[in-house]
């Protein structure tokens, strides 16, 4: 069995997702050229799972890095698992493939491994990522998410995406897709904010019962420079319990946080563009937490989110406040 397969989770469509992925969302202060360098570094370190999105506006740089690493023989396209996401202004069924094709063109790829609905919230189509009215309020769109899902199924059938899933969905929203008449493909995963301060235990239990993988973003907490991140939250990696466990294993708090997710059967996205931390995070497969460690980390849960967006909060599908 290859190393990539060994550290992967099998999805409900038969494909495999590497358990550890590189997150690529970055605040505006980070130059796009840094993303390109980070992808090349990460591939050299051994990362094979790269997570991005149409909305991150960095897929051209990611595409260049991937093409260079394929050209120099470090990887083949089939070695990589690449995720992109459908942005909320493209939820009308006739626009879903357009968004994906735009990403593919920037990436210089013929397919993505995973295509996700980014949020269960549709916004008015157009050039603006967050279309607003004259009062500064976001203009939502009325789209049945089940028809959006059907358009993703077509992208899979046409070979533009090997697998399809969702992000930021709660149990109720997942059930809406799962109970859709004529459902052709179940979501393979649900990507959500998940870390020891927000362990998503109920959502994880639900997803496991439906054979849907949970993928953790902000697995290490989050970068306070990002617009959507609450600035007054405690820093996860400074947590004393986490640091005590890290010292015991002679590991970093980040390594322990990632290992926690992997032992729960959760795929984890770690965002770091720093070469030393990229290497450290990838060493997460080299040690194991004890049942007592896992119990202590479970005990850190405080249902605390780093990601909050007030401008979306009055939408009925706003997903961040309830697991069900």
Please identify the structural class as seen in this structure.
alpha/beta
CATH class identity: Alpha Beta
Low-confidence stretches: none
Radius of gyration: 19 Å
Counted beta strands: 10
Tally the helices.
Answer: 11
Question: SSE string, helix = H, strand = E?
Answer: HEEEHEHEHEHEHEHEHHEHH
Largest sheet: 8 strands, parallel, barrel
Instruction: Identify the strand order in the major beta sheet.
Output: 3-4-5-6-7-8-9-10
What count of domains describes the coordinates? 1
Short summary:
With 324 residues, the protein is α/β, with parallel strands linked by helices.
Describe this structure in words.
By secondary structure, this protein is an alpha/beta fold. The chain has one domain (3-312): NADP-dependent oxidoreductase domain (TIM Barrel, Alpha-Beta Barrel), CATH 3.20.20.100. It contains eleven helices and ten strands. It has helices at 3-6, 32-45, 59-71, 93-107, 145-157, 171-178, 201-209, 240-249, 253-263, 275-282, 291-298, and strands at 8-10, 16-18, 20-23, 49-51, 81-86, 112-117, 161-167, 189-193, 213-217, 267-270. The strands form two sheets. It has an eight-stranded parallel beta barrel with strand order 3-4-5-6-7-8-9-10, surrounded by four helices. Strand 5 (81-86), helix 4 and strand 6 (112-117) form a beta-alpha-beta unit. Helix 2 runs parallel beside helix 3, helix 3 packs across helix 4 and helix 4 crosses helix 5. The longest helix has 15 residues, at 93-107. It is globular. The protein starts with a helix and ends in a 26-residue tail after the last helix.
């Amino acid at each position: 069995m290859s190393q990539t397969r060994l550290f992967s989770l099998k999805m409900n469509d038969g494909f495999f997702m590497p358990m550890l992925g590189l997150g690529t969302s970055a605040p505006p202060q980070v130059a796009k050229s840094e993303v390109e360098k980070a992808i090349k570094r990460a591939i050299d370190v051994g990362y094979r799972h790269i997570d991005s999105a149409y909305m991150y506006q960095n897929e051209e740089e990611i595409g260049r890095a991937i093409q260079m690493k394929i050209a120099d023989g470090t990887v083949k396209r089939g070695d990589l698992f690449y995720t992109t996401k459908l942005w909320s202004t493209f939820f009308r069924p006739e626009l879903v493939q357009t968004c994906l094709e735009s990403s593919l063109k920037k990436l210089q790829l013929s397919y993505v491994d995973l295509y996700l609905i980014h949020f269960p919230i549709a916004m008015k189509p157009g050039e603006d990522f967050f279309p607003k009215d004259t009062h500064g309020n976001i203009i939502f769109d009325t789209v049945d998410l089940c028809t959006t899902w059907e358009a993703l199924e077509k992208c899979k059938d046409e070979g533009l995406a090997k697998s399809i899933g969702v992000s930021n969905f709660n149990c109720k929203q997942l059930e809406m897709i799962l109970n859709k008449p004529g459902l052709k493909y179940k979501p393979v995963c649900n990507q959500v904010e998940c870390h020891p301060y927000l362990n998503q235990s109920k959502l994880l239990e639900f997803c496991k019962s439906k054979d849907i993988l949970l993928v953790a973003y902000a697995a290490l907490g989050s970068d306070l420079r990002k617009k959507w991140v609450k600035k007054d939250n405690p820093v996860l990696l400074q947590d004393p319990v986490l640091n005590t466990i890290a010292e015991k294993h002679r590991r970093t708090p980040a390594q322990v946080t990632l290992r926690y997710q992997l032992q729960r059967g959760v795929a984890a996205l770690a965002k770091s563009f720093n070469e030393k931390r990229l290497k450290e995070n990838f060493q997460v497969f080299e040690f194991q937490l004890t049942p007592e460690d896992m119990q202590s980390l479970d005990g850190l849960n405080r249902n605390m989110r780093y990601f909050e967006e007030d401008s979306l909060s009055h939408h009925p599908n706003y997903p961040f406040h309830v697991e069900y």
